[in-house]
Amino acid sequence: MNTKHKTPTGKYVTILPKKERVNRSKSEKIIMWTVFALLSVYAFTLVYPFFYLVVNSMRDITSFKINPFGLPKGIKDAIKNIKANYGYMFVSKEIDMNVPMMFFNSIVLSIGQTIVGMALSCIAAYVLAKYKFKGNNFIYVATIVASMVPTVGAAPATYKLMLEAGFLQREGVTGYLYNYLGMMLMVGAFGGPFLYLHSFFKAIPWSYGESAQLDGAGEFRIFVQIMLPLASNGVMTFTIMRFLGSWNEYWGAYLYFGSVFTERETLAVGLNRISKLADNKGRFVELFAAMVVTVMPVFIFYAIFQKQLMRNTIGGGLKG
Amino acid sequence: MEDIKMNKIESFEASTAKPPKRRGLTIKTKKLAFAWGMLAYPILQFLVFFVYVNIDSVLMSLTWVQTWRETAIFPTFHFFEKFFRDLFVDKLDQVVFALRNSLLVGLNDIVLVILSVTLAYFFYKKVPGRNTFRIIFFIPSIVSIVIYTMVYKYMFNPTIGPVSKALQWVFGWNESTTPLWFSQKNGIWMIMLYCLWVGTGYNILILGGAIANLPEEVMESARLDGAKMRHELFLLVIPMIWPTISVSILGAVTTMFTLFLQVELLTQGDAPTIAYLINSKIQGSPNSRSEAAAIGLTFTVVATPIILIVKKILDKVSDSFGF
To answer: I need a labelling partner for A4 at 20 to 30 A (CA). Which of A103, A241, A319, B160 fits?
Structure first.
């Protein structure tokens, strides 16, 4: 229980309770510290590879090959190598690498898929949660059943559909736009976010909508101006998750976007292709630079939205 | 007068009575028009990209294009026959390996769940550093699988990889005698290790969230009755978070039939799974896609009852706990 105390200067300060002490037996203490050691090693293995990438992207290939665990020789050396490695990876004909284009593809695809996906999920979740009509329950159950059936072999038919509809083969700007449209059409409303948003909207009392209705608001206005802001916490979280998912997406982006024309590769797709070429040519440090560029936006996002992401995706029950 | 009328209008959601008529369309009609108008595209998209695609998948699996005769035979079980012949008669390495590897991946995921439950319990018991661990353990779920598989491969690279270098130092290997980690022989074990590596942290957080929501008074009274850690874990925590564990186990069983990206990115297909077999044929000829559809359909038929049976067993276990 937090208590307020008056200080000698007359101000009130909140005194927080002392950290709860956990009484443990000796054997329990040993177990806890052993688990701590194990988790520390595990956490180190998750973080170290990124440290390795960042540090080695600032080194030259000769010193890296002599000692992969070393550090840049100094700040001047690091700056020189950053210029060389990051500059090389930005546009390189040697390994057919065009990071700005990959970056552009990743951004437009992620933003498009996020907007379309979230708009459709919100609309479908809201309507099915708030409007009673014949077929409502059937649609809801059908989408749940569909998500439970492991349709292992649907991918060939989807690819055939996209191929025969002509979304994949056209060249040039028109082809790009056509391909992009195909990618957007593939984004559906139903799935994980839909189910969560459905329960979010279900939990919002209709009385808010009712008052707006009495003030003359139409159905669409109630949805956009009343209900969506009330569900903003969930919507925001799934928007971030959706964006990160699209940014990191490999298979769909490869199969339907980047596999036919190299200039349509996203960062994830392009990186995987050039990693083989970079391996063969020994261009490790340049590849590490490209990997750092790819992963940096994700870490920036994570740094900004970390609390919200964790609270809404792994449950609010994570007590400290 | 208009206001009084409006006040009588009950929410469409709650009301079953006929709403009063307005000029033109009734409120109910407007609401219906809005609901169906908004749902039209999502439903159409679902019908095309789920219903049609799955029906077409069945049709594709029954179609065999004979290019030399320029005809397509339909219906035929040619591709189903081929798959079963490859598996049971010819015992093609790739198909047999794929089946074995898929089973191993499923088992590995169950090990992952068990490991995660145990470690999540220690999170609940306030292991030191848990707040930092939480932030770190979430990272694999937001970083691209391409990046993680690449760094994982580089860690094991015999020339530049820290793990390989450490193992070379321990076992006295040199670059040429270091095992080929991502070969057909070792690849599946490396895929399993990878899945454990990136999956454990996130699973700890999910299961830790479930444990943290357990009623503290129940745990407290057990402690007062002298319950030790193992009693708490096996007699209270596991039974009480069983629904969350069930979902994780069902996810593990489904992974058996769907995991393929790790195979492509880590081993370039040298250690295939069933899902890899299917996906590797997508960009081939129409017959190659038909073959993929046939294998996919076979495993959808196999997977569905397996998943339902596992779910039934998990529900029974849940009932036996009596929570």
So the answer is: A319
